[in-house]
User: Fold these one by one.
Assistant:
Number 1:
Amino acid sequence: MGSSSSNMNHIPNAQELMQETGFSAAHLLRLYERFEFLDRDGKGELSPDDFEAVRELALNPIGGRIIEAFFPQGQETVDFASFVRVLAHFRPNDPNRKDGAQQDQANSRTRKLKFAFQLYDQDRDGKISRNELLQVLRAMLGIQVTEEQLQSIAERAIQEADLDRDGAISFDEFKKSLEKVNIDHKMSVRFLK
Amino acid sequence: MLPLGVMLLLLTAAAADDLSGTGAPPLRGPGLGFSSPVPASPSAPPLLLLPRPQEEYGAPGVALARSAAEEQSGPGEEGGEGEHHHHGGGGYKIVQWEWSYVQTPYIIAIWLLLASLAKILFHFSQRFTTVVPESCMLILLGLVLGGVVLIANKKQLYQLEPALFFLFLLPTIVGDAGYFMPARLFFDNLGAILTYAVVGTLWNAFCTGFCLYAAKLLGVIDERVQADLMDFLLFGALISAVDPVAVLAVFEEVHVNDTLFIIVFGESLVNDAVTVVLYKVYISFVEVGAENVQTADYFKGIASFLIVSIGGTLVGLVFAVILGVITRFTKKVRIIEPLFVFLLVYLAYLTAELFSLSAILSMTFCGIGANKYVEANISQKSRTTVKYTMKTLASIAETIIFIFLGISAVDKSKWAWDTGLVSCTLVFILLFRAMGVIGQTWVLNRFRLVPLDKIDQVVMSYGGLRGAVAFALVVLLDGEQVKAKDYFVATTIVVVFFTVMFQGLTIKPLVKWLKVPRSTSRKPTINEEIHERAFDHILTAVEDIAGLQGYHHWRDKWEQFDKNYLSKLLLRKSVYRKSELWEAYQKINIRDAISVIDQGGNVLTSARLSLPSMASRASFPEVTNVTNYLRENGSGVCLDLQVIDNVPGAKVEEDTETHHVLAENLYKPRRRYQSHYSRHFMPLGEKERQDREVFQRNMKSRMETFKSSRHKRHKKERSLKKRRGSDVKEDGSDKPRRNVSWHDKNPVVVPVESEEEKGDHSDPEKEDDVGITFIARKPETPKQRPQSVPAALDSPQSPTASLASPPSGESHLPWKGSVGSPPPCVSVEATKIIPVDLQQAWNQSISSLESISSPPAPPEPVHPRVSALARLGGPRPVSYTPPGSAVGSTSSITAQLSQGSFRFPERKKREEEEEEEDDDGSAPEMRPLMSSLRPPGPLPPPPPPPGPALGSGRRRNPCVYLRSLVTAPPPGSGEPHSRGPTQL
């Protein structure tokens, strides 16, 4: 425990982070190790290049978008706290943890969905336009489908979800279209201790 | 008491005798004699349904040798008066009694019939079957039947014969389960499944065995039960495994949530390896005697477990690969595709048995592994066949198993009762099951993303049903070696009955009372499909970023491997390029189509109830001749695990009739039916519906006046077209008045080009589907063609005209009514569009068939391909938003088309040509709009938007049309609605 507590000391604001994100100390330590591993030049910040160095991520069709999600608008780098905050979205929702703050916790259903929504919503106008949906679809489907097939899938998806008929999917509509999906299942990663 | 003799089902005598040494009942009969007051008669006469003493009869020469030999005691059958024939007299007998000749298949057939009838009987009362599981009823029926036989015959003739069970009944159920196993769900929970199956079963087996032995030492179990530790461990091994048959039978009716189901069911399948090994190990231990067992033997047991389980899995996977490769090359022999599936899956089972590996594991993994590739390779009809055959066989096998369990229990000669043993066993299996589940869940929950809560654990403990596998295993025991076999048999029967009947009966109320989350048979929407895929990618990325080599990481690796190597090896080229998401999309579309059409079916007269669904299935697959895509779609309909709806055969006459029926019946607003299928409809408020209805009626009356005053010309055109059939050139020459004139100059371009394009573009897919059409070939028949071709061609072209032309002239055409009557043009009401869709699908099929036979194909059918090609080349404004969301996709595609068409003159011409026809054939909702614009004389270049939608519309017509069907907007928002009236 001695070494880990000394490590914990390296993590800035570890207590607050744990409080905020719900990660345990072990989680945080592990993530910090990972962070340091990714942070090749040791600045304590990650640049998009650092992310792109992860080989598997390059194979991920929407990896670029996910990397972007780590960088708030205008920022070039991400520090450990932000890094952990983003990852906290994917912490499984702990049913035993009833501290009332469930709503604004990063791993709440809404926040998870919001994260996914923003991957689609590139221009941050609060709506997934047909074009934006198409871009994601194109990335995910690759060359397997023709453009027109993509078009019709996107068309259909928008028609299905678009309740107010503005030709785009708002966050509420997005949420609504996924209301039957167990988001806690589908948007959670088991973080190793 | 009765003379014993293990009377086996004749079926077994015929089939199992030579297949399995264990299956020869007459040999085993004497072995049981010690428990029977009366010396067992060594003869095991074949058994008949209601045997009664009969005099021996000479078997005709044709009789099977074996059955003749076994016929000595000559039981006859009810109504066997004909048996008195004797052949000794010579001379020619006019009527001969050939019982021994047909005996075996006859009795098999009778049993199957009986089992099926039993099912019908149980489902007479809806309320009854919702309370009492079918398996309970079947066991009760078996008890009654067994009792009848016992009373009538004074001895039991039938029993669940292990060889029959393991070689025939079990594989059908396991094969079905494995093949239709939801693979993703299975692998998502693989950790839990393996834990429960291996650790849980071992725990149960050992604890039950040791505790029973302890109970024996304590004197709770009677002295008569001559069993030592090894016997009890053996018994514990066979009684501890959760049974797949029972679990399936009970849980299918309970509908617990998917995770819970897959864990219990997966466990019941996977624990087979443990059971097999434990059983065999203990049998060998019992044979050599406990004192002779050496330490090495335990390690041998462990090694054996690894070999049995891993080997079984590997055998299954090898057969899965073979099956995948074979189905790659069945293009020309579609008709035997299902056979390959059955044979190879069954061979996987038998091969594993051959090497005494875990046959259930082998079959399960063969099914899971092959499913994806096979389903993609084989034709739609083969898929349906596979599904129905598997389900039918599994259902019948299950029925027979439960009936025989009931019958077997009646025969008191084979079991011996000991209250201590029975009650101890019952208590122990329940207790240890619960303890095991709780303990393992506690461990598992530390690793599981979604922990299993207490309710889940209760259901899992309670759902640990024992069944026929245990019974068959205990019957297989050698009475010489295991002295207490009869006690074990009795105990097993009680345990099986208790778990299947009592627990099966009470699990439903329990699940309800505990409010266990139920499964929904809901199908994912396209949004869910898309987003869930995105979630997978996101999670993989997050795992990569966070440096976790987690589940998603490995699943992603597997998918890469699958995509790069396996799919290339196992999938046809034509299928390989397909995207799953695209397939999902099409499935959804077809599902909608069918629900829409079935909805039409609701309003039909009862005599014609089956027609709409038939039409939907008969006509949609035809579209695949070009794009091949519906092979997947159908599966969306047919591969639903829960719902088996029947697919009637398609007959052309009926198809024609369907068109009549649809045309006649679909045009009246029938809201209440629509609400039945609300799942795929955008929710419409009551008020909006009302509005729409009113709107339609108004439109109808307006149309009446409208068409009488205008559009005379269209009527003429139309009749021209009709006479000429499908010649587009003539169409073209008819139309220049309202179209650009260059159109006339080189009309030949179209057929020629399309011909070659068709050659390279659509050929492979067309071939692909040739085999499918064993029903659908009918449209080819010369008798039908003259009627259907013009009509089909006519209808897509005619909508514009139809506005003008009174239906009177065309009413003799099957679907004339639909096109001729105005309201459908206006309405987006789902049902109304279907006829057009059907016609197009129809049209498509005919065109493709014709294009095979006659090179200069009629231009009309060619268009989809041409336009598709043209569209591929054209620029696609991705951001294009349709003017009216109601016609959304149609018009947006249209817009692309028109843009593409400005690129190259030739293509433009072609498209223009299409356009003009498409104006007619495009989405019906647009018709009023178009027609209202057009009549005022020759138009400048046809307005791009609604035009060439036909190309896409036809090629993907289900998609386009259905989209408009399904998401039929309220009148206010859709362009046709809002604008139509004002223009008219």
Number 2:
Amino acid sequence: MAGDKEMMEKEDGEEKEISERPKWDNKVQYLLTCIGFAVGLGNVWRFPYLCQTYGGGAFLIPYLIALVLEGLPLLHMELAIGQRLRLGSVGVWNSISPYMGGVGVASMMVSFLVGMFYNMILAWILWYFFHSFQNPLPWRDCPVNLNHTAYISECEKSSSVNYFWYRETLNITPNIQTSGSLEWWLVLCLASAWCFVYIGFVRGIETIGKAIYATVTFPYLVLTIFLIRALTLPGAADGLVYLFTPNWDTLKNPEVWLDAATQIFFSLSLAFGGLIAFSSYNAQKNNCERDALIVGCVNSFTSIYASIPIFAILGFKANENYNTCQNWNILQLTNAFNIGDENITVENYQDWFNQLNATDPSEVESLDLKTCDLHTFLEQSASGTGLAFIVFTEAVINMPGSQVWAVLFFIMLFCLGLSSMFGNLQGVLTPLMDLHLIPTWMPKEIFTGLICLAAFTISLIFTLGSGNYWLEIFNNYIGSMPLLIVAFFEIITVVYIYGINRFNDDIEWMTGRRPNIYWQATWRFISPLMLLVVFVAYVVMQAEKSPTYSAWNPDYVYFPLAEVLPYPGWVVAICGLLSAIPVISIPLVALYRFICFLKNYIKTRHNPNPYANDVSSGDL
Amino acid sequence: MLDKILFLLCLASALADERCMPDTPHGFQVRLSIKTALGDEAYVWNENEMFLFRASLAFAMRNHMNGQQFEVSNIIVCNETMRVSFWFIVTSPLDTSQLIDQENVEAAIRQSRNRINSAFLLTDKTLEFVDILPTLATLYTHPTPPWLIVFGVVMGAVGAGIIIMLVSSVVQKKRKTNGKPQDKDDDEETRVKTVENGDAHDGVHNMSFSEDERFTKM
């Protein structure tokens, strides 16, 4: 009877452990969370820029090829392995092979570091959001200097939107060595951003699952509203034509293929460990193949869908700038030649110009008329923070009802970033939970709070005057190379160490279908090869460029052009460290395990213990 | 006699015209963009409008230089063009041969700029006094920056949300620990019950009896 009772308690404990692992309320929550993690700020402000730079519609070809050959296989692999082994990134790689545990540690470190600087961007978005409730919008006008005689020169020379971003938001220092001080307004915004993250993340996927219903669906709603509004703006057609006109010559440039591959890789948020963490909370019998296809395709569709209103609005802005340029020319001619007001219009400008040039060329020359070309204005696009905080804010000023559009835009950006933040932090929390590193007395709420507090404290560097420069460094050196290395080791581990046949069996058990030839070919050869090629090409390109950065220096001779400065030596060292530290954990952990193994081996060889037998021979 | 007076008048008017010319050091150029400002409701610029301009300028001079009674005749206009632009100079009411200097004129115009603008339904941009910079409108500085207000509202909501979450999780935990000892007893009871009721899955099925039953049908 006693033995039975012990067995019952053990069953009880096992059941409790299985049932205690949190799980998703329903499939929709899981899919939305993965989509929210994959769809982030990059879909809105990086993909349209790449599309435009690399020949419009033609860029879709390398992009879709990269998606099919690299993105979807890696995505499927991560979701499948997490679902099968039901552990976070560290646990998964540890259980496949203790020597590969470093891959999980690297994932976790990268997730944490990326989460830190990513939330600073959310803080900036919050700052702009708070300022969108004013009339007029604060970035519309330049502030006046103390004498009320003229506008502040820094603002006058650049533009009011530039001034608002670089001076009133960032209060940026002229170079990275000058740190400046902690900007209190940015600290407040950063604290509020972390509070938002905490409130969604407080109980892990229980609360994330509820929060993402809002944060993932809202951006699509806003994008649709913007699409409808943007298509009715004058000049929208020019922007769209410019975006989508394919320029097939760009396909010959290898850089296009490299950028497409890296874009799809970073866009799907692979190698962060977040996707493994999310799928580990699934029931095991779940069709992960279909999930991977859904997430991958929705991500790409969102990129393309987002680029339409973005470029319609950029076309509108270019049109506005073009009209302003032309009207300036018209005014100059009208004033110089005392022609009747409004006699020269945009339509007959050329005729008037020719006539006046014929009669009085010297006078016309002295006016210094600008050459207004719509294409030059269309080319002035930007990516990243430049697109959101400079280009877009300028466009919004000219739209009627600017406050509404600004508020909607910044809420959309915030939701996109917040759902990606959840993934980043879950990629940190799940491994820590699986490794039982959390003391049992500490409730989950306090632990997540501690993670947020630690990340907030360290990310206060980004609120310094030089914070933007540091953020660029983090973005370029953490969010790129280490991820490629981690992904490469991930796929090698699954295919060759875990065994592709065993993996196929697992998937057949989970989904009921064996993966077909497409998955086999990509997992075994194509994806690892592509990752290797992309990694090598990336390293080569980075090595060719000397490490420089663009600084905003009002005292620069050619201000408002950015001053290109080289990184000082200690900063280059930090860049190297940031890239190396996550990656170095892979060989370090392997080495550590090997040393432990050697120790054990030497111990057993010197001291053969006949009773220390692994096989249970107790049944007599 | 009459000839002499006529000659002097012509001379005087000729002299006055000479002082008013483009790039005169004593006057200013004015540019009006009526069609730009008013579009379809633009009025035609004619002599009456010019008279109004001279009158409003005289008004501005009177406002600025207290005591001196400027008249419409003290404002002399020349070089009118189709643009609608012209030059003007201001003579002193006490002595028409004397011109008021530029600084005084500029100060007078600045002081009454709004009144002059509204007389013509124009703005600083469309009624342009060349070389007189309009006083830049300073942005309205709020006593409390509005962004702090929005920040306060949003953070208040978020803070309340966090507190509610933490309190609810504490309450949930308390409920669990209170209900747990009872639940555990119930579980054990039900489990014991199912074992005692002889569920075939737990025990070993005794084949001998069942086989007999199957074959011996008598």
